[in-house]
């Protein structure tokens, strides 16, 4: 894994998200109410809604366009909807958010 | 000759009697006397009326049309003063009325403790609508109320007044509350719960005197404590209303003595309800009275029937307090207790066993299994085989943990009683559903289940859900969302009653089942807190939908639209130039005139939002809140300034209204229209609030709609001046803000509460209008700040851009 420092935890709003631009599209970094951080593609598999603009609740996010709900942990759509969003490894160390660029690079190459 | 039936008292019992009679095709004539100036209504539901959860209109059980259709001669506000048994007539101020059969259904009268000051103005009891209205009138925020009596009625009175903002003290003679239904532990939990809502409880308190010169001022206890009071409610018990029967020399013990067929000692006179005594027993809950009604109807129709009282269960109708008690739970030889406590959750359960049988159950905090235990008590079934797990309820007693929340209900046998008030069992509800009743209302209509006190509504819905499977959707008033069992209205009330001022506090205190709520409840809670605590609560941006969080409407491709406010639809060349410049500068793909008399810049990139806002701000424009559950547009027509038909300055009034109302958060969007004459070019008659100017003034209509539903406004009032129109509208908007559930447009809310109720508060009652308008202005003093200006400030701008840009690094 190649960990890249993408910013400070405090710049991520709790129960909110910020974007990281990559060559392969935007990755949304989410921070939950319990301060867990997750990284997912910022594209809803339904009609491409920006998940980073959804409401974050528990370890889930609701898409802002048509309210599909996704697990931040697995990227899977919840309930009756079917679909999945790609997830990326992310960790917090000493207040900094580190994103696994290895997976991103693979994706960009693919 | 048709039988002449006279009924004295239009209460819960006689209402049911008449229904039973007419359903069975009773052919006689009925004259119905009532001391109260109204017909039958659901007395149980006075408590929700007191707390503000229901209006009086919603609890009427029989209206004029019903009496008319059944030929009932109504003699309301007419007390029967004497019964002449010899001549078979009753005497009232309207003269004499002859009867072939007479039914006494006079209910009971509240007991007044004989202390000094008991007759002072400001002392009331809790029995009828007059009492309820007196308490509502006295329960202004900060007013002091003392309730004497900590039983069912007293506590419902206390909770209702507290919900309206009064400071309430309950004085109770015994060592713990509701001692007739609860054991001390449950009484203690109840007391703690009430105290948490700000209700003071004084147990072992004996009232010595009620103090005051011209009206009540305080209550003095034997121990010397004095509680100041603007209102005193005595709820210390009832006694059967037997005066007529005593005077007529009928046989009367504590109540009017009746036999199994509900006949008094005079065969032509029957009696039922709280005024009777049967087999040495009095009655104070409706369930047995409904049985009496059925028996009495059959007696009148000449059919055999016998009344046999059954166990009754008690629930307290205070929203948020879950309490259930049934059977007998006094200590006694041969009796054993099983007790379960979970102090963390405030849960308490106690079962009383006598040999192999369950004889009593007290539950507090979690009463979902109440019906199951009640069934075990009534069936007298041998429970020794399941004794080990009995206390955990049906899910465990049947073996294995509850995988499914419906398990408790699924485990009930078909004869288990679901609705105690009306004696409806599970099997009857299932039959009704199978016969086609798919909604709660339909089930109510067919079976009466949950149609009285309503506390079993949840259970009835669960039975429906079991029967209908996935096809069932709770129709009438479902919980807010899956995170809670509370309905929107409860949550609003509890936020105020318990002084909850943050989203975590609401979730904690009201027992949310999820950690951070969901996308449905969080925006609602954020709104409720903003509306109720304008000066204290801080908006939670992360609990807002994207459009309100970003103060722009998201488009299908993730770009945004920007709509500046164009006050009353009037703009200037300078504003238009600034809009055009902004459109050029940010490459706006479409500029569109909206249906709301303003201009929409569609397709703006998120990172450009702060800059385009700053440019529009520089030209004097602010956010049009085209995205908000708040004031949208005030459409106007040209009015008297230019139009040859205009009667008033509709454009000017529209602008002034928009300046008054902008920035306020509301349950759903609010749109206004102001037309200068009845030709109505501003389409004011299909807006949430519409004003049509006429020569003599301003006609204000409300509750129109022209979106998914189309509906004409209803007339609220006509006022002579602009000032008055503005004040009425501010008050009306505030009433809506304080009472409606989140996402209900005005027309939906008015359909629920009734336009008369609104009119009473914003038109007829001047003091209430001023208070509402005052609270509106208070809220506006903090909410009228342009969000665009705040969010485009340099220190805020970074949050609109990505946190990091790895695409550049990769390219390097
Ligand atoms: C821009 C506009 C259409 C236009 O090009 O003219 C518009 C655009 C939208 N309307 Fe509208 N409505 C617009 C006037 C109306 C009108 C006409 C009016 O206001 O006179 C109505 C009917 C009147 C009414 O509200 O009763 C109207 C009834 C709706 C409804 C149905 C509301 C209802 O309760 O029935 C929705 C859906 C909703 O709110 O849930 C809606 C929702 C929307 C949304 C917000 C859909 C969405 O969630 O994204 C659209 C946003 C587009 C955008 O990005 O700007 N729009 N919408 C109009 C903006 C007016 C303004 O200046 O603010
Ligand atoms: C606030 C409140 C909440 C309650 N909650 C519950 C509950 O949750 N569950 C429950 O089971 N029970 C509850 N009860 C009790 C229930 O309402 C009574 O048991 C029931 O109303 C009694 O019915 P009734 O017909 O005997 O008398 P009532 O409903 O009292 O009707 C008697 C009527 O007779 C009229 N009347 C009396 N004398 C005369 C006369 N001489 N001439 C003409 N008219 C006369 C009275 O004006 C009255 O309208 C509650 C009661 C109150 C007050
Ligand atoms: S009617 Fe309103 S919501 Fe529907 S497409 Fe048009 S703008 Fe969008
Ligand atoms: S685009 Fe996400 S739910 Fe439709």
Describe the structure.
The complex is a heterodimer of chains A (110) and B (812). Chain A has 1 helix and 10 strands. By secondary structure, chain A is mainly β. In chain A, the strands form 3 sheets. Chain A has a 4-stranded antiparallel beta sheet. A 3-stranded antiparallel beta sheet of chain A has the order 1-10-9. A 3-stranded antiparallel beta sheet of chain A has the order 5-6-7, with no helix packed on it. In chain A, a hairpin with a 5-residue loop joins β3 and β4 (37-41). By secondary structure, chain B is an alpha/beta fold. Chain B has 7 domains: 4-108 and 240-300, 3-Layer(bba) Sandwich (FAD/NAD(P)-binding domain); 123-236, FAD/NAD(P)-binding domain; 322-411, Enolase-like, domain 1 (2-Layer Sandwich); 413-478, Arc Repressor Mutant, subunit A; 488-544, no CATH class; 553-623 and 786-812, Alpha-Beta Complex (Sulfite Reductase Hemoprotein, domain 2); 634-783, 2-Layer Sandwich (Sulfite Reductase Hemoprotein, domain 1). In chain B, the strands form 11 sheets. In chain B, strands 3-2-1-7-19 form a 5-stranded parallel beta sheet. In chain B, strands 9-16-10-11-12 form a 5-stranded parallel beta sheet. Chain B has a 5-stranded antiparallel beta sheet with strand order 21-22-25-24-23. The mean pLDDT of chain B is 90. Bound molecules: siroheme, flavin-adenine dinucleotide (FAD), iron/sulfur cluster (SF4) and FE2/S2 (inorganic) cluster. Residues 553, 555, 561, 563, 592, 594-596, 598, 600, 626, 632-633, 671, 705-708, 745 of chain B line the site of siroheme (SRM).
So what's the CATH class of the largest domain in chain B?
Alpha Beta
Strand line-up in the sheet with most strands of chain A: 2-3-4-8
Shape of chain A: globular
* Structural class estimated from helices and strands of chain B: alpha/beta
Mean of all residue-level pLDDT scores of chain B? 90
Low-confidence sequence ranges of chain B: none
Task: Tell me what the CATH architecture of the largest domain in chain B is.
Answer: 3-Layer(bba) Sandwich
Q: What small molecules are bound in this structure?
A: siroheme, flavin-adenine dinucleotide, iron/sulfur cluster, FE2/S2 (inorganic) cluster
Largest interface: A-B, 40 and 29 residues
Report how far apart the termini of chain B are: 106 Å
**Low-confidence runs of at least 5 consecutive residues of chain A:** none
Tell me the fraction of residues in β-strands of chain B, as a range.
Answer: 15-25%
Give the H and E element order of chain A: EEEEEEEEEEH
């Amino acid at each position: 894994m190649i960990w890249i420092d993408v910013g400070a935890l405090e710049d991520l709003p709790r129960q909110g998200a910020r974007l990281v631009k990559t060559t392969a599209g935007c990755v949304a970094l989410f921070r939950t109410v319990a301060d867990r951080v997750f990284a997912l593609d910022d594209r809803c598999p339904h009609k491409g809604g920006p998940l980073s603009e959804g409401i974050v609740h528990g370890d889930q996010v609701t898409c802002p366009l048509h309210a599909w709900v996704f697990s931040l942990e697995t990227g899977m759509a919840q309930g009756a909807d079917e679909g999945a969003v790609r997830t990326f490894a992310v960790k917090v160390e000493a207040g900094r958010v580190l994103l696994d660029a290895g997976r991103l690079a693979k994706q960009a190459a693919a | 000759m048709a039988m002449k039936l006279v009924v004295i008292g239009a209460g819960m019992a006689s209402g049911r009697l008449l229904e039973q009679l007419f359903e069975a095709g009773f052919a006689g004539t009925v004259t119905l006397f009532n001391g109260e100036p109204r017909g039958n209504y659901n007395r149980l539901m006075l408590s929700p009326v007191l707390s503000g959860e229901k209006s009086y209109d919603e609890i009427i059980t029989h209206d004029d049309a019903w009496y008319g259709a059944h030929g009932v001669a109504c003699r309301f506000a007419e007390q029967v003063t004497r019964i002449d048994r010899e001549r078979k007539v009753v005497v009232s101020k309207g003269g004499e009325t002859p009867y072939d059969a007479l039914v006494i259904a006079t209910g009971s009268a509240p007991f007044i403790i004989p202390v000094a000051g008991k007759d002072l103005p400001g002392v009331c009891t809790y029995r009828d609508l007059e009492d309820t209205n007196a308490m509502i009138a006295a329960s202004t925020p900060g007013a002091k109320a003392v309730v004497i009596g900590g039983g069912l009625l007293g506590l419902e009175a206390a909770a209702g007044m507290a919900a309206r903002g009064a400071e309430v003290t309950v004085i109770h003679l015994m060592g713990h509350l509701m001692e007739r239904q609860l054991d001390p532990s449950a009484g203690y939990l109840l007391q703690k719960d009430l105290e948490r809502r700000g209700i003071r409880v004084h147990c072992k308190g004996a009232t010595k005197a009620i103090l005051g010169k011209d009206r009540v001022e305080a209550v003095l206890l034997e121990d010397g404590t004095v509680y100041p009071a603007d209102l005193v409610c005595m709820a210390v018990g009832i006694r059967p209303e037997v005066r007529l029967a005593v005077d007529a020399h009928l046989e009367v013990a504590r109540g009017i003595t009746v036999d199994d067929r509900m006949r008094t000692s005079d065969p032509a006179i029957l009696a039922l309800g709280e005024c009777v005594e049967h087999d040495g027993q009095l009655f104070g809950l409706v369930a047995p009275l409904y049985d009496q009604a059925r028996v009495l109807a059959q007696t009148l129709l000449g059919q055999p029937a016998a009344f046999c009282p059954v166990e009754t269960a008690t629930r307290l109708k205070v929203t948020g307090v879950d309490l259930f008690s049934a059977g007998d739970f006094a200590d006694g030889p041969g009796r054993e207790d099983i007790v379960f406590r979970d102090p963390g959750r405030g849960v308490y359960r106690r079962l009383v066993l006598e040999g192999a049988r369950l004889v009593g159950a007290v539950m507090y905090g979690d009463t979902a299994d109440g019906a199951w235990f009640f069934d075990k008590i009534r069936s007298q079934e041998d429970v020794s085989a399941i004794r080990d797990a009995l206390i955990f309820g049906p899910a465990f007693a049947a073996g294995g943990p509850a995988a499914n929340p419906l398990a408790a209900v699924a485990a009930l046998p078909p004869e288990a009683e679901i609705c105690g008030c009306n004696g409806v069992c599970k099997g009857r509800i299932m039959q009704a559903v199978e016969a086609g009743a798919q909604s709660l209302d339909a089930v109510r209509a067919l079976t009466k289940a949950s149609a009285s006190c309503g506390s079993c509504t949840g259970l009835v819905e669960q039975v429906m859900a079991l029967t209908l499977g996935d096809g069932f959707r709770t129709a009438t008033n479902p919980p807010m969302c899956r995170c809670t069992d509370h309905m929107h209205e409860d949550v609003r009330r509890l936020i105020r009653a318990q002084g909850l001022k943050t989203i975590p506090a609401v979730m904690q205190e009201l027992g949310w089942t999820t950690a951070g709520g969901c996308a449905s409840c969080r925006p609602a809670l954020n709104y409720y807190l903003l509306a109720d605590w304008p000066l204290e609560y801080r908006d939670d941006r992360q609990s807002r939908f994207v459009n309100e969080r970003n103060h722009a409407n998201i488009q299908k491709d993730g770009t945004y639209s920007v709509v500046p406010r164009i006050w009353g639809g009037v703009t200037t060349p300078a504003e238009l130039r600034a809009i055009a410049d902004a459109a050029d500068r940010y490459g706006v793909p479409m500029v569109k005139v909206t249906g709301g008399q303003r201009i929409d810049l569609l397709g703006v990139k998120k990172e450009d939002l702060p800059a385009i806002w700053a440019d529009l701000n520089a030209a004097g424009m602010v956010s049009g809140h085209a995205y908000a559950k708040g004031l949208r547009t005030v459409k106007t027509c040209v009015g008297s300034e230019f139009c040859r038909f205009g009667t008033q300055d509709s454009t000017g009034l529209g602008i002034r209204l928009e300046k008054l109302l902008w920035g306020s958060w509301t349950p759903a969007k609010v749109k206004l229209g102001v037309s200068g004459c009845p030709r109505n070019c501003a389409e004011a008659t299909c807006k949430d609030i519409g004003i049509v100017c006429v020569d003599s003034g301003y006609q204000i209509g409300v509750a129109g709609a022209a979106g998914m539903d189309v509906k004409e406004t209803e007339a609220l009032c006509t006022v002579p001046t602009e000032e008055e129109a503005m004040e009425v509208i501010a008050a009306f908007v505030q009433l809506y803000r304080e009472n409606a559930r989140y996402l209900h447009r005005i027309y939906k809310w008015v359909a629920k509460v009734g336009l008369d109720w609104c009119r009473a508060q914003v038109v007829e009652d001047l003091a209430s209008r001023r208070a509402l308008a005052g609270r509106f202005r208070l809220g506006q003093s903090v909410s009228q700040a342009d969000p665009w200006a705040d969010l485009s400030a340099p220190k805020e701008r970074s949050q609109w851009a990505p946190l990091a840009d790895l695409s550049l690094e990769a390219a390097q």
